[in-house]
Amino acid sequence: MIQRTVAELALPYRDPFVIQSFSFGIDEAGKPLSDGSDIDSFERSACFIAGLRGDEVQQTFVCARLVARLTEMEQAGLLAPGKLVMVIPCANPASMGIGWRFWPGDKTDINRMFPGYDKGEATQRVAAALFEHVSGYRYGVHFASFYLQGDFLPHVRVMHGPGSDGNNGADFGLPFVLHHVPGSFDTTTLHYNWRLWDTEAYSLYTKETELVDEESAENIVRSVLRFLNARGIVNWPDHRGYRSTQLGESVLVAVQTSTGGIFCPHVQLGDVIRKGHALASIVDPLNGSVKETLHAPCDGAVFYKARTPLVNEQTLAFQIVPPNVDDTSGSGIRGNFLDPEA
Amino acid sequence: MRIEVSARELATGEKLRIVKSRFAPEGAGNDQIDGLPRACVVTGIHGDELEGQLAAYELARRLRENPQCLTGVVDIYPAVNSTGIGAIERGIPQFDLDMNRVFPGNNSASPFESMAAELIADVKGAAIAFDIHSSNVFLRELPQIRVNEVSAEDLMPYARRANADFVWVHGNSTVLKGTFAFSANAMGVPTLVVEAGVGLRITPGVGEQLADGMLAVLSDVGIWNGPVPHVRTPIVSSDGEVSFVNADVAGVFVPTVEFCREVQEGQLIGRILDCGNGEVLQELVAPVTGLLFTLREYPIVYPGSLIARVLGGLR
Ligand SMILES: [Zn+2]
Q1: ipTM of the modeled complex
Q2: Best CATH choice for the domain A2-243 from the list 3.40.630.10, 3.40.50.2300, 3.40.50.80, 3.50.50.60
Q3: Distance set, CA A90 to CA A64, A264, B82 (Å)
Q4: How far apart are CA A257 and CA A293, in angstroms?
Q5: A15 to chain B, closest Cα gap in Å
Q6: 8 Å CB contact of B302 and A314
Q7: pLDDT digits over A115-173, tens only?
Q8: How far apart are the first and last CA of chain B?
Q9: pTM for this one?
């Protein structure tokens, strides 16, 4: 294993901002990577990154456990010779250290700065340094979180466009592979830029973000190793996990509130529900009366659920996956990857 | 007359609202109003930018005092991100969401995005729109109009009349498609983006200057037939070339020049200090001779922080 600093930046009145990477590999002679190894002779096989935002703690925890696991596996000779795996568990320690989601100086989002600019503002410089190190890999996996405050069933997100391969995404063995059609604000994300430069990119969504869930983290580490095994990068046989359902984002059925109030859900993520099932009550915060009951508009399973105790009018409360949607060809996925506005 | 443009109920029963004030010719009924040219003055999309408040007041005051001079309709939207203004937040509170990245608001997954769509629908059909910003809390800007080169041909006649000191014509590659101005221009409403002053403050004189400019443009599009203030001739960026000065170190920035003046190549603009040690970490100098139109206001800097912009190469 080689531990390196991939980016460093001075911070006002704080210790410097330092991003660390951990690289794993075994050379043709069976020797694990060490500081004297010729790392450039390895094939850049897979890169994992988490913590671009300071509140993505579960994501960082998953990567940290992955580092621990790969360390053991490298010693045990379970990596395919000549293949390099790099993990960056925390890409934004400056924000995580103070419990913020975005950059401490100007509240910008590193994941809206790719591919970066080395003469620009601080987060543009960080993105540029990061991108230089994470590009050129065959596979790239970003442990991400959503901008709305809610929880998802664990899933793999693939940006739909040329070269996207949902079948490979299914090798994680997670319940769902979601095909996302990029919009204009996606073009500055790591995922999009990886794809633009020929890395097969995946975003993995775990159930938690700010809170740590050990069992869920272990399941994600296991799905990552399952993927690496299927791609011939590690030798770690496991059962194949879920037979992933492939779906276009547009097939998800949104359930939104039509009033504000206290959100009292009656269902859990993953629950299978029938059309008309009562999903949640919106309760008046002053007199306790039920202002609205949200009903399932169709049969299916609960894929997304809002996490906040309070909701506004038109809050996205749930997304439902209808049954029998395992088909991305007929699910209305359109759009132009290179020009999302076209 | 106050009109509600868009509203959503918050958790505690309060309504989140976008409202506008409408000024129309005296005695005009709704049918007549629909046939008149209309101007939209939008401000407060960023909750930490307040220079547009005084500009809106100055314009509204003059319209109110001279109703007989109105030959069209003026809609003033004084506080688009209303909760952000009250909470001293740039973005939309609860979501850390920059409202000027969600237009035209196609996504109905959050109330704020569909409120953006309702604002755009309300502006549709206007003869002219102004979107007044005041930089951010970090930088002070000379009152300027920002125009994208793709719409420069349509917008320059208005931009030159808007009483700005400077018109910056941007390259096409820097287009931000989620902005209000991009969406409004795309649907055929000529929309001028105004950047003036600094965040969280109202700079004396800026509001009056912008109101003078808006009145001149209103006169050009047939909405105002009263006296037109004298407007200045702006410097246009295509007359020269914009250079940037960025910090290389972290520390405390203190300027050594006054804002908004000509600087000479090599002239000291400011210093970045290590205050505890009494040391100068970096001296920043003007890269070219020209117009200093952006200067850092907020002292704490990171490596990369923008310190100044200078328009050089002026004849
Ligand atoms: Zn602004």
Answers
A1: 0.90
A2: 3.40.630.10
A3: 9, 34, 35
A4: 9
A5: 11
A6: no
A7: 999 999 999 999 999 999 999 999 999 999 887 788 889 899 998 876 666 678 999 99
A8: 48
A9: 0.92
